[in-house]
Amino acid sequence: MKKINLKKGIIGVFVIIISAVALLTYLGIDIRGIAEKPEVKKGIVYATENSQIIWDKYLKNNFATATKYISENKLVEKSIALAVDSVQKIISVGKTIKSTVSSD
Q1: I need a surface site. Which of 36, 53, 87, 102 has the fewest CB within 10 A?
Q2: What's the predicted TM-score (pTM) here?
Q3: Which of 27-62 are b and which e, b meaning 16 or more Cβ less than 10 Å from the residue's Cβ?
Q4: Which pLDDT score is estimated for 7?
Q5: What pLDDT score does 38 carry?
Q6: Is 3 left (phi over 0), alpha (psi -120 to 50) or beta?
Q7: Is the dihedral of CA 85, 87, 89, 95 positive or negative?
Q8: Kindly report the CA angle at 47 between 45 and 51, in degrees rounded to 5?
């Protein structure tokens, strides 16, 4: 199975974050002042705590179970094989139709 290259994704996220910070700074928005406001800090803590609760309570075990099921049953490979087979059938039908129309 082909491994996913996470480096490109992580670098892209960093580039987007740096670009966003540069743009906001250019527009004169004080990011540090906003981030240090008590209301914003409370909101971030609230979101972080609830995200952790949701992950631990609902997603963690289901994610592991789903990942295990997908890998054990080779669903990705089967899906790709089915898609390739379908595309090949569509191409052959298209060629058949084209040759039928051309011969008329």
Answers
A1: 102
A2: 0.39
A3: eeeeeeeeeeeeeeeeeeeeeeeeeeeeeeeeeeee
A4: 55
A5: 92
A6: beta
A7: negative
A8: 120
